[in-house]
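ugh ok so i messed up the first submission bc i forgot one of the chains. this is the corrected input, ALL of the components this time, i swear. 388 residues overall. if the numbers dont match what u have on ur side tell me asap before i send this to the collaborators (the ones from the other lab, u know who)
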Amino acid sequence: MPPLAPASAQRWPWWPLLPLYPYGRRRTLVRELIAGQLWSFEQLQGVYYVAVPIRMTVLKLREGLLLYAPVAPTAEVRRALAQLEQQHGPVLSIVLPTSSGLEHKLPVPAMARAYPGAQVWVTPRQWSFPVPLPLAWQGFPMGRTRVLFEQGLPHDDELSWCGLGPLDLGVGTFMEAACLHQSSGSLLVTDALISIEREPPAVFDLDPTPLLFHARERGDEPLADTPENRRKGWQRLALFASYLRPQSLQVPPVPELLNTALAPGLRNPRSHFGLYPFRWPDGWQHEFEQLLSQRCCELQIAPVLERLVFPRCRQALLDWLRALGQLDGIEQMVAAHYAAPVACTGAALAALADQLSNRSWAPDGGSWELLASIDQRLLKLGLVPHNP
Ligand SMILES: [Fe+2]
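and heres the new structure output, hopefully the right one now
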């Protein structure tokens, strides 16, 4: 009997459905964050050149390695991990630390297949949309997949685990599992807690195209690689990733868009044939500075989650931050996105919780307008629970 799906579809059950940048040319930046203890594997992922870095963190344990929030196990990633295994022991555990972050979930089945001896851990109440599929159908090896907190915690003599959630999103759940690597003082988090950097992350040195694409003012401008353009493109990308449609952004009418398309030198896929549906009037830099001004001791809550998830679970977020702040020995934070490592202490986490308690929560206007309208639409459709 023929297989139900081609082998490639079984390996990557959802990849073909998603037009994800960089369309099969994925590169990985490997950095040693703490000598002999902690490594960052960064890749770019996104849609239509709104590419944001995504990070896997590799931890050295007494007996081997733990992969936190896996990235796609390309040949480049496998080679770098093989070198670490030679020095520090085998990959023992693969952790999916989120229930809602699809970008972190997609690489897990392939990573699990690459390390058949590793135990796989996932946060509780995993879900899929629009069709609810069991984890086994999504490619997870059920014989060696366990649920964090419900079925134990991996290496809990070396790691302190602290969960946020599960929080009810209506269509699914939000859950994030942070862990403190005691020997290095590193707090690993996924999506909720971030530190947006002003300068472009080094992973874009491998391919700055997304930065240069967004640094332009019109579609008929060539992609010019200068430090200033890289910075400009990065700051605009950070606004996209934070607010989906920043307040400063304007979308030109179609005739204007077509007028600037197909300019000489830009008739290639890298330039999207000159199609560039964005205008950034003066003032966008101020919006970026405002985004950074939400930080407290370099830490901040991801705006998308602040507006779409946490309005209904504000206390849970504050409790989580304060619980993290109680963990002994935190020296730095490593998140799955943006800057890492970032200096972090228990006092800084407590200060962030205090700041969030005292400032107004994500509003409906300004930069937050599109996120607020999505939230209100979901509420109207009954797809998310009402505010308490
Ligand atoms: Fe994420």
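quick check: The radius of gyration is 21 Å. that seems consistent at least. Residues 1-19 have pLDDT under 50 and may be disordered.
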